[in-house]
Amino acid sequence: MAVYALTGFSLVSLLSFGYLSWDWMKPSLVADVATDPMEKSLPPTFTRPPHIIFILTDDQGYHDIGYHGSDIQTPTLDRLAADGVKLENYYIQPICTPSRSQLITGRYQIHTGLQHSIIRPRQPNCLPLDQVTLPQKLQEAGYSTHMVGKWHLGFYKRECLPTRRGFDTFLGSLTGNVDYYTYDNCDGPGVCGYDLHEGEDVAWDQSGKYSTFLYAQRVNKILASHSPKEPIFIYVAFQAVHTPLQSPKEYIYRYRSMGNVARRKYAAMVTCMDEAVKNITWALKKYGYYDNSVIVFSTDNGGQTFSGGSNWPLRGRKGTYWEGGVRGIGFVHSPLIKRKRRTSWALVHITDWYPTLVSLARGNLSNVQGLDGYNVWPAISEGKDEGKESPRTEILHNIDPLYNHAKYGSLEDGFGIWNTAVQASIRVGEWKLLTGDPGYSDWIPPQTLTNFPGSWWNLERLTNGLRKSVWLFNITADPYERYDLSEQRPDVVRSLLMRLVHYNRTAIPVRYPAENPRAHPDFNGGAWGPWASEDDGEEWEGGREPLKSRNKKKKKCKICKLRSFFRKLNTRLMSNRI
């Protein structure tokens, strides 16, 4: 039913966009793509550490960018990517907190205790305080560091806040999702509060400003007040395009021909974000940073298909370990790239940005132990043709011992070395293994098409009820995960299970504490913010081996689940109105 519930667009919508050019920054200063695709820029000389702009979008689907064939207009991102290096073998995590924690620490979530779910607003939990963060390493290297946007790495203590974790300045939200105008966030019925912060204070005066515009304007202000002679790092974590689906009306009007209401609003938000990136790029050029800058663009997880996102033709969606949940949009744009205007198939993971960017900044990594990331700059800047391949050969997508165990998994199915009921996923070379319950496994065709020929996704839906807890794919030959080879290649299954065993031996206990009533915004002046004193200990659950925590389950809010069910149902009903 999932496919049919989300196919409420007309094919005509692909052909009938009305393009409104609401140019709020002057004409684009992003250079057009060279007509000669073989043209190579001269190798630049690094005379000083580069300015680093890291742009992270929220819930943007793999299909939802122009150069992936989308019906959504992203002219700025398309130009930046075309003139830089597109990363088409790039991986992220399936949900918010894990991707952000791995970006900031360079470590898999099994090594920070954040391997289960997200950090929720009322949990006494945050990014472990003993972790040296990416901005802290850049500060050591002489950088001015700034964050704009969504944090979502915990805030129950002041020590957890962005300004205590390496950022000189911060403007943004601490929780996972807020209203784009009012900045209100409800974590269940009656548990609502304001969430926009300037540094460590509540930014009440900014209410009413659309967050995508607000964040781009703040980046402009930071660049205007800083000297381009001094290195700067700006982490722009857009709230867009996470729910709630909100956008200025002029952007929605562009997509008025889209029948699917959720997709229409979502598309407007993506295009609005694209223009915000245009504004940031313009500011880099206007204030003299661009020629010595590195712009990294990344999504944080797969798109949420019932909220307008599309990961087509990949399988799965946000929150799953199928490719649609973990393969991200990524590119690097910089005058400092030696071989521009190309697509890279080098294996890259979000943990790799930590050592890559610190190395670019000429920072010191010798005193940082246990990183899971690699320096992939040579592979990005020069590439395989120049003998610079990615040093990465495998990715641990995750091991989550607390996620609901698969009904039909067992230690016996895992050759006596791994309980296949446990949710886990790993890629080694061209092989990808999934165990337990990987999450919603369908392929969701683009919502613009009402009828799709072929039946392989229907076949999967029909066979989805088989008693399975192990899947194996040659992800290089079969990136859409159509052909499960677990029965044909038990030798590969066993080999990858051994890698999971290896990683699990290095995992620390899960940090997923119960919610604390002291976190209620009513006790904090109506806003979300720190509630624990500096003397309070770290209140987190743990102390056992990860896979021995199998019987510990998080508390569930039945009202919240019911509300979520009706919200999803309403979205699907709206998508069928034509």
TrEMBL record:
<dbReference type="Pfam" id="PF00884">
    <property type="entry name" value="Sulfatase"/>
</dbReference>
<dbReference type="InterPro" id="IPR024607">
    <property type="entry name" value="Sulfatase_CS"/>
</dbReference>
<feature type="domain" description="Sulfatase N-terminal">
    <location>
        <begin position="50"/>
        <end position="361"/>
    </location>
</feature>
<dbReference type="InterPro" id="IPR000917">
    <property type="entry name" value="Sulfatase_N"/>
</dbReference>
<dbReference type="GO" id="GO:0046872">
    <property type="term" value="F:metal ion binding"/>
</dbReference>
<keyword id="KW-0325">Glycoprotein</keyword>
<protein>
    <submittedName>
        <fullName>Arylsulfatase I</fullName>
    </submittedName>
</protein>
<comment type="similarity">
    <text>Belongs to the sulfatase family.</text>
</comment>
<feature type="region of interest" description="Disordered">
    <location>
        <begin position="523"/>
        <end position="553"/>
    </location>
</feature>
<dbReference type="GO" id="GO:0008484">
    <property type="term" value="F:sulfuric ester hydrolase activity"/>
</dbReference>
<keyword id="KW-0378">Hydrolase</keyword>
<dbReference type="InterPro" id="IPR047115">
    <property type="entry name" value="ARSB"/>
</dbReference>
<dbReference type="InterPro" id="IPR017850">
    <property type="entry name" value="Alkaline_phosphatase_core_sf"/>
</dbReference>
<keyword id="KW-0106">Calcium</keyword>
<keyword id="KW-0479">Metal-binding</keyword>
